[in-house]
């Protein structure tokens, strides 16, 4: 679950599993999906890209690679919606309302968060104005939740503790200093879940 609009997660874990340098591949929460785009007509030989990995990437604020056209959310493999100026993204402002085209994403995010006993929060400062995300966290927090905060600002962990008072909130160093802690935590979490 991410509040970022960029395509860093998609580029990092790739659109399908890669065995040589292991990358699990992603999908946008609803399973395999053919992504739009494919280059100029002279590049007709380029195969269409399908997001068919095992990791759901749930982008709460939309993406620079998504466009809402003809009453349909269209996901591209590149950033052409941002270049065209019609990216389907929601600015993080105080009076933000959830557009209907993002409702399925938020539904899947709520399901994913509520079924997770460990949350790793990396680089999200829980700003006061982001009331929709705050509500999502409160509504989705399971009883036995442990929240690990990776941020150089210790106040971020305090904000999460205030938001989720009955949960275990554990502060960690920000990145890159906290990478070794994050790696250990992810390894132990994966082994526990397996």
Word description of this protein:
This protein has 194 residues and is α/β, with parallel strands linked by helices. A hairpin with a 2-residue loop joins β5 and β6. α3 packs across α4. The radius of gyration is 18 Å and the shape is globular.
Write the layout of secondary structure elements.
Blueprint lengths: L7 H6 L12 E2 L5 E2 L15 E2 L3 E2 L5 E8 L2 E4 L4 H5 L2 E3 L13 H12 L3 E5 L8 H10 L5 E5 L3 H10 L4 E5 L6 H15 L1
Parallel strand pairs: 1-4, 8-9, 9-10
Antiparallel strand pairs: 2-3, 5-6, 5-7
Helix pairs in contact: 3-4
Biggest sheet features: 3 strands, antiparallel
Q: Compute the gyration radius: what is it?
A: 18 Å
Percentage of helical residues? 25-40%
The secondary structure category is: alpha/beta
Distance between the termini: 21 Å
N to C succession of SSEs = HEEEEEEHEHEHEHEH
What does the overall shape look like?
Answer: globular
Arithmetic mean pLDDT? 89
Count every beta strand, where a strand is a DSSP E run of 2 or more residues: 10
Work out the strand percent: 15-25%
Q: Regions with pLDDT < 50 over 5+ consecutive residues?
A: none
Number of helices: 6
Biggest β-sheet: strands ordered side by side in the sheet: 6-5-7
Task: Fill in the keyword field for this structure.
single chain; alpha/beta; three-stranded parallel sheet; 194 residues; 30% helix
Describe what is shown at a glance:
The chain is α/β, with parallel strands linked by helices.
């Amino acid at each position: 679950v991410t509040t970022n609009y960029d395509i860093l997660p998609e580029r990092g874990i790739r659109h399908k599993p890669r065995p040589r340098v292991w990358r699990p591949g992603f999908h946008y929460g609803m399973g395999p999906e053919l992504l739009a785009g494919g280059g100029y007509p002279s590049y007709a030989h380029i195969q269409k890209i399908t997001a068919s990995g095992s990791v759901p990437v749930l982008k709460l604020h939309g993406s620079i690679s998504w466009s809402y056209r003809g009453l349909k959310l269209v996901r591209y493999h590149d950033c052409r919606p941002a270049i065209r100026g019609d990216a389907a993204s929601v600015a993080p402002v105080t009076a933000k309302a959830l557009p209907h085209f993002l409702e399925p994403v938020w539904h899947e995010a709520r399901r994913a968060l509520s079924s997770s006993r460990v949350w790793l929060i990396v680089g999200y400062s829980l700003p006061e104005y982001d009331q929709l995300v705050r509500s999502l966290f409160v509504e989705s927090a399971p009883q036995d939740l442990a929240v690990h905060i990776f941020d150089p600002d210790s106040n971020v962990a305090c904000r999460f503790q205030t938001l989720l008072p009955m949960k275990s909130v554990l502060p960690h160093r920000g990145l890159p200093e906290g990478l070794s802690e994050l790696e250990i935590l992810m390894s132990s979490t994966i082994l526990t879940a397996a």
